[in-house]
Structure formats: structure tokens, C-alpha cells
């Protein structure tokens, strides 16, 4: 089953550890990785993802899924709540001195070492039975994400990274290292703009049209899946607006360890303006020049 394959990624990682490998919001830093050993934290993050999958996947496409509306008019399901509770429960035992910042239950504890959780990224997809949703788990140290795990159990995929250990994915019993693309020309670039409404609401619709006219291919893959496509070298840029820390924290180490780069839309090494621009690294300055000309 897809749940079994996701759980297998944790067992695979235990073997992979032996292989030789090369504050908080809004001051959320997207660069400058540490050189500490985060292998134990990554192993824990994979266990947390197993626990998350065990909560979320059985509720996916369920006829009795409970859906309510939050104060910001976004949706939340009983699966979102149960998944975050499961992660918090494990962290309370395994890392009682670490802080937690989750989408559904907010922040508590230390911001020196803080676990950043989005229990179900893509809740709109989840509640409509679209399988492109996932759990995002990150560990940030002094505001810099150093560990990231993204699990998408409905499609049997998982990705993970820790500073200095590369970016990895697994669909079955064997992991494989992933790398961003080597595309070096905007003419050949494939991009995900995520949402026309986001660009319009942020006053960047003209830049979106310029982007679409300049690159080879533009699509809106949406949510966390687009960042994983970037890390695997399938596409070359992702940009979006209105993001929160938990929307992208887990993607930062994965994109970075794959050789990509992530900044704010303005090029700053934070998401303090509530936006992201993620690229294969090679094209980052070219995209910034194009979008801010």
C-alpha cells in the first residue's frame, strides 16, 4: 500500500545514514545552512511523517470527512487536526525541549530549535479527493530550516533532506538522491506559478505575463508538490505569494540540498514579504532580473 511504501522510507533512511554524503517568522531565513549533524533529527522527522501518514491517509476521500472554516476563511478538516496532534504528541516525548510551530495549533516553546509543521498542505485538494497533498515537517535552528521531510502518501511519495546530507526521495525500498536541473536558459525553463489569483492580489500580474511569455513552459502545479518537482529537476522555478512559514519550511532544506536556491520574491534570503522564489540555482538571478526589470 502507499502507507507501507511511505513507512519504508524511514527504514531505508536508517541504512542511508551510513552512506558517505558529501526565530521564527517573519524573519525566516532560507539560506546559510549549518554544518551540525542532523541525522538523528532527520530520523525523527521521518518517524513523524509515518505517524502523520497513519492519520491522514485513512481519512482521504472519506465520505464522513469533517470540514470547517477557519477565521481566515480557509478550510480545515478533522484529518488536519488529528495529524498535527499526532506529530505534537511524538515530539513532546522525543524532543520535550524543542519548540513547535504548527498551522492548526500555533507556536509553543523554544524558537532556538523549532519544529515547523503543516499537517496537510493542500487541504483544498484533500477535501475534494485530489491526491496532491502532503505533510510538511521541518526543524529550524535559530530560524534556519536544517531538516525537511515532505510526505505525500496518496501518491506513495516522500522526500527528505538535512543540511550537508543531500536531498533524497523514495517510492519503494530504495532511495535515490535528487538534484535540481542544469537548465541554464530562460528559453528552456519550465516554471510553476502556483496561482493566478496570488499574482493578481499581490500586484504582480504583469510580471506573470512577462514570465509566461519568456519561458518554455508555464503551469500551476500548486502547493508543496511543485517544490518537490523543482528539487527533482522536473521544473526550474516556483514562485508564489501569501505564504506562511509552515507552507514552505520543509521545502527549504530539500531544495537547497538538491542544489537549488530559495529566496523571497524580492531576492532577500527570508520570506519576510510573504513570498517565495525557488529555482534550480543556475537561473535564480536571471529570474530575478526578468521579474523586476
Structure commentary:
The strands form 3 sheets. Strands 4-3-5-6-7-8-9-10 form an 8-stranded mixed beta sheet, sandwiched between helices. It has a 5-stranded mixed beta sheet with strand order 12-11-13-15-14, with helices on one face. It is globular and about 50 Å long. It has 293 residues and is α+β, with helices and mostly antiparallel strands. It is built from 10 helices and 15 strands. It starts with a helix and ends with a helix. Helix 7 (223-231) runs parallel beside helix 9 (251-257).
**Low confidence ranges:** 12-26
With strands numbered from the N-terminus, the spatial order across the biggest sheet is 4-3-5-6-7-8-9-10
Count, helices: 10
Shape: globular
**Strand portion, in percent?**
15-25%
What would the keywords be for this entry?
five-stranded mixed β-sheet, 293 residues, single chain, alpha+beta, eight-stranded mixed β-sheet
Q: Secondary structure elements and their pairing?
A:
Elements: H1 2-16, H2 39-56, E1 67-69, E2 75-77, H3 78-94, E3 99-102, E4 106-108, E5 113-121, H4 123-128, E6 134-141, E7 144-152, E8 157-162, E9 167-170, E10 175-178, E11 190-192, H5 196-201, H6 205-214, E12 217-219, H7 223-231, E13 237-241, H8 245-248, H9 251-257, E14 261-263, E15 275-279, H10 284-291
Parallel strand pairs: 3-5, 11-12, 11-13
Antiparallel strand pairs: 1-2, 3-4, 5-6, 6-7, 7-8, 8-9, 9-10, 13-15, 14-15
Amino acid at each position: 500500500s502507499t502507507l507501507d511504501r511511505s513507512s519504508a522510507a524511514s527504514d531505508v533512511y536508517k541504512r542511508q545514514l551510513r552512506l558517505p554524503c558529501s526565530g521564527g517568522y517573519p524573519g525566516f531565513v532560507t539560506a546559510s545552512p549549518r554544518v551540525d549533524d542532523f541525522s538523528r533529527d532527520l530520523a525523527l522527522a521521518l518517524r513523524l511523517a509515518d505517524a502523520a501518514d497513519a492519520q491522514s491517509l485513512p481519512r482521504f476521500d472519506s465520505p464522513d470527512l469533517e470540514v470547517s472554516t477557519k477565521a481566515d476563511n480557509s478550510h480545515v478538516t478533522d484529518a488536519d487536526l488529528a495529524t498535527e496532534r499526532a506529530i505534537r504528541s511524538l515530539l513532546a516525548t522525543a524532543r520535550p525541549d524543542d519548540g513547535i510551530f504548527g498551522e492548526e495549533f500555533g507556536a509553543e516553546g523554544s524558537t532556538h530549535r523549532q519544529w515547523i509543521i503543516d499537517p496537510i498542505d493542500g487541504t483544498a485538494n484533500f477535501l475534494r479527493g485530489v491526491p496532491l497533498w502532503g505533510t510538511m515537517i521541518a526543524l529550524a535552528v535559530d530560524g534556519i530550516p536544517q531538516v525537511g521531510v515532505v510526505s505525500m502518501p496518496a501518491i506513495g511519495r516522500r522526500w527528505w533532506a538535512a543540511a550537508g546530507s543531500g536531498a533524497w526521495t523514495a517510492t519503494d525500498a530504495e532511495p535515490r538522491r535528487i538534484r535540481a536541473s542544469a537548465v541554464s536558459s530562460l528559453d528552456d525553463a519550465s516554471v510553476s506559478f502556483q496561482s493566478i489569483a496570488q499574482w493578481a492580489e499581490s500586484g504582480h500580474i504583469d510580471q506573470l505575463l512577462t514570465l509566461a511569455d519568456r519561458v518554455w513552459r508555464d503551469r500551476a502545479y500548486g502547493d508543496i508538490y511543485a517544490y518537490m518537482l523543482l528539487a527533482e529537476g522536473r521544473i526550474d522555478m516556483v514562485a508564489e505569494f501569501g505564504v506562511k512559514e509552515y507552507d514552505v519550511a520543509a521545502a527549504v532544506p530539500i531544495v537547497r540540498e538538491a542544489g537549488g536556491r530559495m529566496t523571497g520574491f524580492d531576492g532577500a534570503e527570508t520570506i519576510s514579504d510573504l513570498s517565495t522564489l525557488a529555482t534550480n540555482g543556475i537561473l535564480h538571478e536571471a529570474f530575478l532580473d526578468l521579474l523586476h526589470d
